[in-house]
Amino acid sequence: MKVVKVILIILVVLTLIFFGTGLVVKENNYSLEVEVNKPISETFRLFNDQSKTKEWIPEFQKVEVINEKPGVTGSEYRITVDNNGQTITMKEKVLAYVENEKVTFYVDSESVLKTNDYSFTSEGGKTKIKLDVTYQGESYILSCVFPYFKGTFKGIDEGYLQNFKAFAEKQ
């Protein structure tokens, strides 16, 4: 009987920790950097060329324009990706676009709200891309789960940046 009580207490504590996570952690953040051996103007152009996105994001299927604004900022797109055989549609809005300096996307992807803030700096003929990410779940349960998957999300974005580096340096 004592063993059952101990197990129940452990389960209650773990449950409280799990659900408490959603109360304490409202959003998750991380930063990544990559250096591309190309000039900033060429790197920025390649990065923002939607016809080349599939070259460095293999899951990418297509992009549809919802609302395109002059100067790019405020433009909205519907992006379709293949997630291990499952088609996922995301809505992306360009929050900031400064040529050869910065591009910021807000992505609403089936319960994940994510902001990708890319900044580009020139360093002696090379380009440093810094990615600052903020993400959160649309629901309370996802807000409880996402902090435990930060490494997974970060790994995916790091892989995409490395893929872009390899792609850009071959061009």
Automatic annotation (TrEMBL):
SUPFAM superfamilies given in the database record: Bet v1-like (SSF55961)
Keywords from the UniProt entry: Membrane, Transmembrane, Transmembrane helix
Pfam families in UniProt: Polyketide_cyc2 (PF10604)
Coiled-coil zones: none
InterPro entries xrefs: Polyketide_cyclase/dehydratase (IPR019587), START-like_dom_sf (IPR023393)
Keyword Transmembrane found: yes
Transmembrane spans: 6-25
Keyword Transferase: no
Domain of life: Bacteria
Protein name: SRPBCC family protein
Organism: Pseudotenacibaculum haliotis
Organism lineage string: Bacteria, Pseudomonadati, Bacteroidota, Flavobacteriia, Flavobacteriales
